[in-house]
Amino acid sequence: MRLSALRQPLNGVIYAVMEMTPLQCRMARAALEWSQQQLADTAAVRQVTVSDYERGSDARRSTIAKLKTAMEQAGVVFIGATEASMGGGAGVRIDR
């Protein structure tokens, strides 16, 4: 699991935030049946940014956060590589 940053909420507890991988991005977009353009529009980024990231190009953490947040708000739950899942490894699921 890639950790994008350490966050400190108001209660003073520090926790790590999982960063979405390019594979998880493709999986989540497929689960939502969204095109790259739909994700780009929803996340307020360019379509080429989505395409480049999904192919493994580097992206700013803020851009990855926008993409991830857009899909989470649509019902995607991201599963980290160390979290319990049926097949093991990182993944996604829909929680609608």
Give a quick set of tags describing it.
about 100 residues, alpha+beta, two-stranded antiparallel sheet, 4 helices, globular, disordered N terminus
Please characterize this protein's 3D structure.
The chain has 96 residues and is of the alpha+beta class. The chain has one domain (20-94): 434 Repressor (Amino-terminal Domain) (Orthogonal Bundle). It has helices at 22-32, 36-43, 47-54, 61-73, and strands at residues 3-7, 15-18, 76-79, 91-94. The strands form 2 sheets. The chain has a two-stranded antiparallel ribbon. Helix 2 (36-43) crosses helix 3. The protein is globular, with a radius of gyration of 13 Å. Mean pLDDT is 83; it is low at 1-8.
Mean pLDDT: 83
- Range of helix content: 40-55%
Taking Cα atoms only, what radius of gyration do you get, to the nearest Å? 13 Å
Task: Summarize the biggest pleated sheet.
Answer: 2 strands, antiparallel
Low-pLDDT parts are 1-8
Counting DSSP E segments of at least 2 residues, the number of strands comes to 4
Structural class designation: alpha+beta
What best-fitting shape do the alpha-carbon axes yield? globular
Q: Tell me what portion of residues adopts beta-strand conformation.
A: 15-25%
CATH class: Mainly Alpha
CATH topology: 434 Repressor (Amino-terminal Domain)
Q: Give, in order, the helices and strands.
A: EEHHHHEE
Number of helices: 4
Query: Taking strands numbered 1, 2, ... along the chain, how are they ordered across the largest sheet?
Result: 1-2
> In total, how many domains does the architecture comprise?
1
